[in-house]
Amino acid sequence: MKFKKANLVFSIVFIFMAGCATFPKVGKQEKEKLLLEHLQNWETLRIDGIIEANYKSFAFRKNITIRKNKEILKIDIYDTGLFGMKPEPFLSVNIDSLILIKSQTETEPTISKIEQFPEFKLLLNPLKLVKYTNEIISNNELLLSNALYIKFSNKMQIIQIDHVAYPQSIKFEYQNKLVEIIFYKEDKEIANIQIDKITYKNL
User: For the chain, how long is the longest CA-to-CA vector?
Assistant: First the structure.
């Protein structure tokens, strides 16, 4: 009987210790560090991959390059040229204080104010979220300026951005690094970016 009780106690202790090793708790300081590192990664980066879009009559599958520094976010969508050469992008988006969209199918660029697209404003200046660190690490979420609802993983990575006023959202999938960005409208996927390569450096 004593042997069985000792065995039971040993098993309980072993399971508890194994659980602690398998699911280590991340403390506040570690979360603060992870959040800062994640937001800093968004400051300067380059993404190369494939974008697929299918919304109403607008459908394509093309190469995409996203480049960002502290002043500008630049998105180029293009076909792969002959022998791997890259032609002029058929669609380019430059985002700073304004959003400028150039297309091969339009003679004049489209210009919008960045305030109309708060998700781009957020990605342009991600370190502004640092002042909300306590709220983020406590709740894994943040309501920003009553415009965006942002969700974070336990690793303090941005995993979803939802519009408050519109049924639109962006989801981010990770495998150590970011591997996919998915765009939704009215709960329906309208585009996704499959990331082949991501590096953190200036434009």
Answer: 88
SS3 189: strand
Q: 3-36 b/e with 16+ CB inside 10 Å = b?
A: eeeeeeeeeeeeeeeeeeeeeeeeeeeebbebbe
Rounded CA-CA distance 147/144 in Å is 6
pLDDT tens track for 19-54: 334 445 568 899 999 999 999 999 999 999 999 998
The full DSSP string for 79-129 is: ---GGG-----SEEEEESSEEEEEETT-SS-EEEEGGG-HHHHHHHSGGGG
Please give the C-alpha separations between residue 64 and each of 19, 103, 118, 130, 203, in angstroms, as whole numbers. Answer: 42, 14, 22, 29, 15
- Place 107 in a pLDDT band, splitting at 50, 70 and 90: confident
152's tokens: 């974070």
Which two three-digit tokens encode residue 69? 């520094």
Q: What is the mean pLDDT of the chain?
A: 83
